[in-house]
Amino acid sequence: MLVTGTSYGLGAAVSEAVRSRGDTVLSMSRGRPPAPTEIWTKVDFADVDRVGAAVGTMADSLDRPLDGVVLNAALADKSRSQWSAEQVERHFRVNALAPFALWSALEEAGVVGDPCNVVLMGSFLQNGNVRQPAYAMSKAALWSWMRSYTMSQPTVASVSMNMIWPGRVDTPANPPRELPEDDPNLFYPPQRVADVVLRYLYQAPGGPRGTVIDLGRS
Fold first, then answer.
1. What's the domain count of the chain?
2. Which of 23, 27, 147, 209 is deepest in the core (most CB within 10 A)?
3. Half-sphere exposure of 167 (CA within 13 A, CB side)
4. Cα separation of 145 and 136, whole Å?
5. H-type alpha helices, 93-218
6. What single DSSP character describes residue 203?
7. Is the pLDDT reported for residue 27 higher than 90?
8. Each residue's pLDDT tens digit, 50-90
9. Cα separations (Å) of 53 from 60, 101, 108, 148?
């Protein structure tokens, strides 16, 4: 299984959940993952031009095609206003263009299994957000690519792509904070999301494709 963005937080939780099933995790992230048993390929997804080379490096460590892929790595820069072209470009590059480039490189390298289940980390904010418009736009683009890819497939296809909206996940990058009483989007531990990722990562052939699973308001 390939998991991106495993250096901490949700990606690390997904990696741990996969490894708990006895499967090998190949990880691609900017920082080294905490689990020494992962087969790690260093890549900064902000540098899209290097994604193809990173796939080549990772492919050298494969002994068979990938059964599953979790596209988790993402950028959510809250340090300054996202109402600028520079911020929109940054978020699109990491959150939309990099996953697209990665998947294209995996297909070109011939390392996508038959079958192969793909889980993308999206966001409810793709519907729009005043404080994080660049992030929202990039996640909307990611969803659009997933839907377009699924619509282009034949009725019976070897690849199943589905998206999860994880909601507020308690991670070092997004620590819990006080919320308004009527806010339905609570903070949840990353393991809760990882459990749902596994359901779709290990689903039988012919399962759901192109769906969105919203965990934020449940």
1. 1
2. 27
3. 20
4. 14
5. 98-109, 133-151, 190-201
6. P
7. yes
8. 999 999 999 999 999 999 999 999 999 989 999 999 999 99
9. 11, 11, 12, 26
d(C-alpha 144, C-alpha 127), whole Å: 12
On the CB side of 60, CA atoms within 13 Å amount to 7
Q: pLDDT digits over 154-167, tens only? A: 999 999 999 999 98
CATH of the domain at 101: 3.40.50.720
Q: Is the peptide bond before 115 cis (omega within 30 degrees of 0)?
A: yes
Other CB atoms within 10 Å distance of the CB of residue 142: 25
Confidence of residue 217 (pLDDT cuts 50, 70, 90): low
Residue-range definition of the domain harbouring residue 61: 2-214
Burial of 163: CB neighbours in 10 Å, binned 0-12, 13-18, 19+: buried
Place of tokens 């087969």: 39
Answer yes or no: are the C-beta atoms of 55 and 46 closer than 8 Å.
Answer: no
Amino acid letter, residue 195: D
**Residue 146 to residue 162: CA distance in whole angstroms:** 8
Separation between Cα atoms, residue 78 and residue 135, nearest integer Å:
9
Which residues in the chain belong to E strands, given as ranges? 2-4, 26-29, 39-42, 66-71, 112-121, 159-165, 168-169, 187-188, 212-214
